[in-house]
Amino acid sequence: MHLLIVDDEPKVVALLRRAMKREGHTLEVATTGDEALKMAGEGSYDAIVLDVMIPPPNGLEVCRRVREKGIWTPILLLTGRNAVEDRVSGLDAGADDYLPKPFSLNELSARLRAITRRVEQTGSDVLQVGELVLDPAAHRVTRGGTSIDLSPKEFALLELFMRRRGEVLSRMTILDHVWDFAYEGGSNVVDVYVRYLRDKVDRPFGEKSIETVRGVGYRLKT
Questions:
Q1: I need a surface site. Which of 24, 26, 125, 203 has the fewest CB within 10 A?
Q2: Are the C-beta atoms of 100 and 51 separated by less than 8 Å?
Q3: End of a domain among 92, 120, 148?
Q4: Residue 12: which CATH number?
Q5: What would the pLDDT profile of 61-94 be if each residue is shown by its tens digit?
Q6: Domain CATH for 131
Q7: Whether residue 108 sits in one domain with residue 11
Q8: Which residues of 59-95 are buried (b: 16+ CB within 10 A; e: fewer)?
């Protein structure tokens, strides 16, 4: 997943950065409400992790304005306040879920999977295209029942292809979702990792499911 983290506490941001990268996710960070509104409007994110107590406008106001703009990216609110009225205010502002601090990183990951799953309306967190199966929670990939060992970047790339199967993805789109925003290399890294992925999920099984669309990018056949 490509995430927008909105929090002005450096320790929390550093913790989330390490944890999310360990799971193969990429992220961008905003530290104020104004930054969050600008980035949410300009970027393409799978989910937004939004702290309530940020420099103005606060997280609730950011949430309201994002929804008013017609942006329906899943939003998970983080806050140190845990009163019922606070939770209700967050959900009424348009948040998809609410997690009080301090929180478990495992729970945070599970809640992110849940809110993105609801948006996709897949009915299951397990992704499947033909005999190719990817389980984000277990970080496991199989094809025809055979387990496939992938690196975190390979896993994230395959997950993106499977979530957007049938859609042609440009190299820049793939970079935005799989590589960190601070990545300064060229887009040829995408070609390299597509080759790695084909060597693991296609060629050993006599398949050609990852297609090259010349001059545009790549697509996972449905």
A1: 203
A2: no
A3: 120
A4: 3.40.50.2300
A5: 999 999 888 888 999 999 876 666 777 788 888 8
A6: 1.10.10.10
A7: yes
A8: bbbbbebbeeeebebbbbbbbeeeeeebbebbeebbb
Find out whether 52 and 59 touch, Cβ atoms under 8 Å. Answer: yes
CA neighbor of 103 nearest in space, from 16, 190, 193: 16
User: What are the tokens at 86?
Assistant: 């606070």
CA distance 117 to 5: 19
User: Checking DSSP bridges between strand 2-6 and strand 26-30, what pairing results, if any?
Assistant: parallel
3-state secondary structure of 91: helix
Going by the DSSP 8-state scheme, the letter that residue 183 receives in this structure is: -
Identify whether residues 58 and 167 lie together within a single domain. no
pTM of the predicted model, to two decimals? Answer: 0.61
**CA–CA gap between residue 175 and residue 160 (Å, rounded):** 11
Note whether 76 and 116 are within 8 A (CB): no
27-50 pLDDT, tens digit each: 999 999 999 999 999 888 989 999
Provide the residue range defining the domain that includes 161. 127-220
113 with 9, same domain? yes
Residue 206, Ramachandran bin (φ over 0: left; ψ between -120 and 50: alpha; else beta)? left
User: Within this chain, do residues 154 and 97 fall inside the same structural domain, yes or no?
Assistant: no
Helices and strands: H and E segment counts in the chain: 8, 12
